[in-house]
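pipeline/complex-builder :: batch 7 item 3
reading input block
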Amino acid sequence: MFSKLRLATACKVGELSGRLSIKLGRGRGETLSGRVILALDPRAISKLSAGRDIVLVSGTNGKTTSTRNLASILRDFAGEGVSTSESGANMPAGIAALLAQLPRNRFAVVECDEMYLPDMYQKLAPKVIVLLNLSRDQLHRTGEVRKVSNLWHQAFTNDDVTFVVDRDDPFLEHAVSQAGHVIRVSFSGRRHPDAATCPNCAAILDWSTGDYACACGLGAKLPDVRSDKRLDGPQRNTVLVIEAARLMGAEILADEATDLINKAPDRIHSFSAGGKIIPTHLAKNPESWRQALGDVLADQVVLSVNARGIDGRDTSWLWDIDYAKLRGKRVICTGERRLDVAYRLSVQGIEVSVASSFAQAVEEFTSEPIQAIVSYTAYQDLLATELGITAGKSGAQ
Amino acid sequence: MSLTIVRLYHDLLGTYGDQGNAEILMHRAKARNLDVQLVEVTPGMAVPRSGDIYLLGGGEDGPQSAALEMLKQDGGLQYAAAGGATVLAICAGFQIIGESLPDSSGNAVAGLGLVDAHTIYDASPRSVGELVIQPSRGGLPMLTGFENHQGLTRLGEDMPPLGLVQSGVGNGFSKQEGVWHGNIFGTYMHGPALARNPELADAVLQCAAGPMRPFNDPLADAFAKERRQTLTGN
């Protein structure tokens, strides 16, 4: 009885603090609301998860988009309300706030930060965990890609949950190699830029066939689902999301699945500045930059790089990317670390200039189309400006 | 004059963007009209013995052990270094060129022994953050980089460090950071180190190619200056 009352009070006070935070223009309120809930009832996440059918979505790239996509597919195909995180708040506070939201639907699709996944797996007792991909990201926080893979490997040893993973990613295959139930999806293999050695035994991985093989047996398990078409990152994530939706009871026919894959959501949002519309990619690590660069068609490009906490405080990864696609275009760099990216481009022989702000950069172009690639906090700042709220600075550079 | 730069196993030792050091050296060498070529050494290939500059980057524990084993068996880098070739080794690479280092289970294994340095596994939190050092030689200014490592490295008594730590951790002993012994450079600085410190890039080039005229690259200098100013206030 007391336990229920405590949870109810925590959720009510949390909701009020969240509303206050929005009123004060401090952001969207989830994180504050969740912190209050957890302060008043540290067991709130487990209690709010009890009796619900939960899917956790994690991985380096595409978490927010895939979470939203899965929630929408479940609504359409399972015909039920779905609670989900809309904003990408994927740490415990954000997750507590989402679970507390009314109505508390039976289905919840929850985005989860990689480092918190083992803990959230324990607390939420999900039915399904979707693991999208693992590559270099925020190394100042995670240390190494391998560390995340090992952390998961050690945490996932039971058969109380079903994983949906891209088995072409050796870091994911290692993460689930001790797990009881795994749906392995293969996209016919592709070289992983960070996996020269085996995540399990550290031997040099044999990639000669375009897929990996190792004497220790990593990669030997056959895939459950195979896709032979060439798919890009967002499309691959959609395939995984469809498998997860099926596990949750959604009946999706083959041609419906093809439609969903063809219109896989990407990470482009159009911002307006100085009367111009700028389709903008959120890219935050080498892999997502490679994908974003592949989509650049305009001859005028703005690149914005910050190095606040969530962006990765070390900008060295800018050197992992080949920018040849930008050759011959007019490129303006902005953001707090504009010189890091501008110098990197100049060494590759790409002409660049710098501007003190996104608006300033856009102003230098007299015509459209203009495209932008921006880092995480730069994107948040643009969104905040658009919504008329003060951006929360996520740590100094 | 011609110059051969050898980039060693960048698939294994390129986790933190250090492969960029090769591009920066190429860029600054070409600006001086040097005839420069880059040799990419991948696992299974022999390490050339006649290179002028050898580059090793930072990597994760498993790949670091794999790279160390291959270098030991090959012997090409040790041969070239004994003959006076220039070596720039970053982070895991810096640990590899020392006398000993921990393997992925934490047991001490022999390194390549190009410099008298012993890396030990330390249970304290990983050293992660901006690093600022003051070199005492070569007319080098304050250098900056980003460190991200678990091990700590003790230099032998006669081994000169690259510089003294102004802020950050560096080697973790006596405020020392890196090593600069003859033509061999080691450091924990990522960034990559040569992107954030053009003067260090030229010091490495000059070890291999002799004195060279200054190269005016306003963007490189502005970047180095911005980092220095942000981190030290001057």
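note: The helical segments of chain B are 20-31, 61-74, 76-82, 92-96, 193-196, 198-209, 218-232.
queue -> next item
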